[in-house]
Amino acid sequence: MQAFFSLLSKIEKNQFSPLYLLSGTEPFYIDTILKALTNKLVHEESKAFDFSQFYGKDSNVNGILESVKRYPMISKFNVVVVKEAQLLNSIEFDLLASYAQNPLPQSILIICYKNKNFDKRKKLYKAIDKNGDLLSVKPIYENQLNPWIENQAKNLKINISPIAIELLATHVGSNLSSLDNELKKLKLLISEDVIITEEHIEKHVGISKKFNSFELQKAIGLGRFSIAFQIIQYLNINTKENPLILTLGNLHSYFQKLLLIKGVGSDHKTLGINPFFINEYKAAAKRFNMRQLALAMDHVMEADLKSKGINSKSLTSKEILEELLLKLFNL
To answer: Which range marks the domain in which residue 185 is found?
Structure first.
């Protein structure tokens, strides 16, 4: 996300704005920008005097405005953070907009508005667009997940193998905050000169290197029924660590990638597949025709509906996965 990295770069260069509106449906980016700003602007010796933090649910705009209009006592800037701003009402946003039209240069107001995008038609949005910095963020696309993990590992100075990246992606999913936490944990536990492998993931993250969603899709793709059946038995025993919704999501994504290989080719960047695995995906794609892959995706979606109790009797995760497996091996 170019806007995110551009804003982060400005902060690292000490180029600050009096106003920030951070909104959207991917909290990782909002939290990262907030942390970067507070690390630069808020110091322990002046925190009690020149830093205020509010929560939308428990705050009113008058208190926020009173704090943001104060002059700093020790630091260069008076910093005011509003978390959970989505819980403020529209009238309070209009009052904040009046301030944002002519913000004080000695104060920095940071508004964190999570779980949805801020309405661009609002006066506050337009005022901050003119006098401050805006960031609107959304979850990354599925084909960007593995490259994101690889890039984040590089930022943390972690050496990690392609298989370890794939295990993290299939097990944790697209929750960037959780992925970042797992990578930071691995950094603390493993020496910098050691390459993180599937063994490290199994030991420190709690993912079995033999029985996981990644190995399940591989077994299905290569036609290894007995291995696939063993894996789903393990997944069903450990449903807390292997939620059905995540397993089904990974399978749907897998068949979608195979379908793309059949239709548009095998460029690993477009597909979001590490080059290390591309031949494995191509081999699996050869086993199916387009109709079979489309049908496989339908079966996975049907299983997802059953897991939610839609259009079916109540079935256990075990029953849903076993039924799905039989259908996939009889395409």
So the answer is: 140-170+177-205
